Amino acid sequence: MLRQMDILKTLVKIIVIAMVYFGVGPMLGFLFKGRDLLRRIALGFMAFELVRPPSDFTLMLYSIEKYRGHTKGFEFNFLEAIAIGFALSAILEKRKDFRWFTPGMLVWFSWIFVGLLSIFQALEPLYVFMPAFKYAKMSLIMLGVFSAIRHEKDILAVMRGFAVALLVQVVLCLWGRYVQGGFRVMGWFEHQNPMAMWSYMVAMPLFGLALSKQTKPADVVLCFAAFASAGLVVVLSVSRASLAAFGLGAVLMLCGSFLQGITIRRVLIGVGGAFGGIVVLAMAADTFMERMGEDSSPENDLRFALNQQSAAMLKDSPLVGIGWNNFGIANSRPRGTKYSEVMERWEQNRGRRIYPEMFQANPLTESLYWLWLAETGVLGFSVYLLFVLLTVWHGIRATWGFWKSPIGLLLLGILVALVITYFHGRVERVLTQTKNLTTWIIMCTILARCYFWRTQIRAKKIKEAEVLGPAVAN
């Protein structure tokens, strides 16, 4: 009977997924065709929905809930249906700027392909296909958002959605902290750390909009309120690294705005932000002092032992790793006894008694880079870094090209957020959770679209120069 229920649930999931991807997605494409306002509302909704619990917009097939890997099944993201609608509307409108392969997408697919090579070393080959499936489908977000962003107003629609999401998030966190009495609140996220990282990633471009002289007063208020909310969320998460990242990002953004000129608004925002930060930190001083008192030395920090496990895996399988999404098996008993013993020795050195049954579900390394090195080897890690560097390049070129435009500081904010997030990846498994991953891809796609605009403008100028050159000569 139980088996029959599982089969029935799976069939229902398949029907729902088919309806969303092959029904709702194409239907939205026809609805979006020629309707700029509706498309912008959908862009804002997509951004806002990322603050909601993952169960609101994801559905998992072959879910392995007890597995401690970073991907627990074949995940379907319903926001991808909106992205399908964006892409289809561009095709129906026969837009000349539509691209099947957006800037950076080929490198993205190359990383996925290289990650699949780790299947030859994997203890569970099927688990390798789970992240490959998840990340491959992120290309739908790339394609859809790239197709939907046709004007600076479209980017502003995305930012408004993120701003509202942050305002909702701060209310949830305040409720969790001061009404429910929580210590490390997490809102609608799986954990407080990804919530804090998502908050500062979204906050930086919003801060850029608030600092821009061309931003309308109503949007300045909305964006600055969202930025302040993000700071409060980070404080309430009691994440030391995220607080440092938020503070550094805010300083870089403020200094960057001064390069465009010192204005009364920017000075007031800087002073007000600093004063607000002091007040908030004072309110949360007790929790942060308690967190600061924790011993993070290698002898007592679990992350040190997990990184040692990763290094051992990399040493044994340096080229393609021990298998994408296989870390949770390879570092735990009974199939990963060799690497579990690394943690067991660490625990033994701390004076703990070792019981093998306690090491059957060891946690994953917190470092994103050590995770990719262990699972996909030097080859996979190198291609991943190539994509990271490409997004930074898009950010630099886009920011430089649109520096004096209304979105110049916004693009700087995305660039600052990405660079800080990449550094933060050394100690946090950021960009593996669906909400952070999707937000990251949206940010990267905005930069890719602006980079594309810049190359189109440059190509047009070169073409005009070639046409005018002979005419002038004659």
Walkthrough of the structure:
With 474 residues, this protein is an all-alpha fold. The protein has one domain. The protein is 71% helix and 2% strand. The chain is built from 17 helices and 2 strands. It has a two-stranded antiparallel ribbon. Helix 2 runs parallel beside helix 6, helix 4 packs antiparallel against helix 5 and helix 15 runs parallel beside helix 17. It starts with a helix and ends with a helix. The relative contact order is 0.12. The mean pLDDT is 88.
Q: What is the helix fraction of residues, given as a range?
A: over 70%
Q: Report, as a whole number of angstroms, the end-to-end distance.
A: 87 Å
Proportion of strand residues: under 5%
Low-confidence region ranges:
none
Please provide the count of β strands.
2
State the shape: globular
Summarize the helices and strands and which ones pair or pack.
Elements lengths: L1 H31 L3 H14 L8 E4 L12 E4 L1 H14 L12 H12 L8 H24 L3 H28 L12 H20 L5 H21 L2 H20 L4 H20 L1 H8 L9 H15 L10 H4 L6 H13 L18 H34 L6 H17 L9 H40 L1
Antiparallel strand pairs: 1-2
Helix pairs in contact: 1-3, 2-6, 3-5, 4-5, 4-15, 5-17, 6-7, 6-8, 7-8, 7-9, 7-16, 7-17, 8-10, 9-16, 12-14, 12-15, 15-16, 15-17, 16-17
Index terms:
globular, 71% helix, 2% strand, 2 strands, 474 residues, two-stranded antiparallel sheet, mainly alpha
Summarize the structure.
The chain is mainly alpha-helical and 474 residues long. 71% of the residues lie in helices and 2% in strands. The radius of gyration is 24 Å and the shape is globular.
